[in-house]
Amino acid sequence: xxxxxxVFMGTPDFSVPVLEGLIENYQVVGVVTQPDRKVGRKQxxxxxxxxxxxxxxxxxxFQPEKIRVDFDDILKLNPDIIVTCAYGQIIPKDILDYxxxxxxxxxxxxxxxxxxxxxxxxSIIDGYLKTGITIMYMDEKMDSGDIISxxxxxxxxxxxxxxxxxxxxxxxxxxLLDTLPTIIDGSAKRISQNEDxxxxxxxxxxxxxxxxxxxxxxxxFNQIRGLNPFPGSSCVIGDKEFKVYMSRIESIDTxxxxxxxxxxxxxxxxxxxxxxxxxxxxxxxxxxxxxxxxSNFVNGxxxxxxxxxxxxxxxxxx
Length: 318
Known about the structure:
24% of the residues lie in helices and 27% in strands. The longest helix has 25 residues, at 161-185. The chain is an alpha+beta fold and 318 residues long.
């Protein structure tokens, strides 16, 4: 398939295996990724993972600030197909209509579920039992094009956003490579999305990081692992702010306690009353300190300094 010219559009680490698969099997004539950004205290220029990979293979890189108005150089490459995966900008119709085999997107959910920029986070946070990868033809609306193929994976209680992310990016690579030949030979299916089944997974907002203890333990358990490792869940206990990365549930009746009340200091963590049971933080980062197992944190505190205090999140603290 090295006679097929492809342009790839993507930005984060999730996209890397997909681009690697394209490079191994097709003629990648250009890569489009987000502009370089300054990061950290020193405000150093940082290349996206996709730009780094493209440069390693001497592939032309384009970084338009606004692709909807700056795309002529991409079309001059005369690609037969364009593949996108977590690029981060809406692709204009001029590009969508150009390639002979169309514009194809690799999306990290089972569409029409979880359209948007945070499908992996939200699949865990919203309590989905399974998710997957969808290969789809792109149109002008967000993640609404016809479905070509899908692959599923179960969401386990042991999954975090990180583990599911790493599993899905490999599934995405395999599914794309299995699907592309059918697109090229014309045998690919086109399945319209059922608009009645659409759900959304918009990018995580700051307020969504904070834990609301009036929710059930299961809801908080899902939120914590769905935001692990980035951006992490947050709460305040007394006057101390914490990031929370892992937890477990103690099935004890807490209905007579105030939601957020610290009930126990266990060997492995801090137990807090929720709407129904107790959520126990087992992996935390006190603000100003390094991330640590909560077992190490509780060894250095006095239980009475925490038991009886009330933990709260953004909504309660404002």
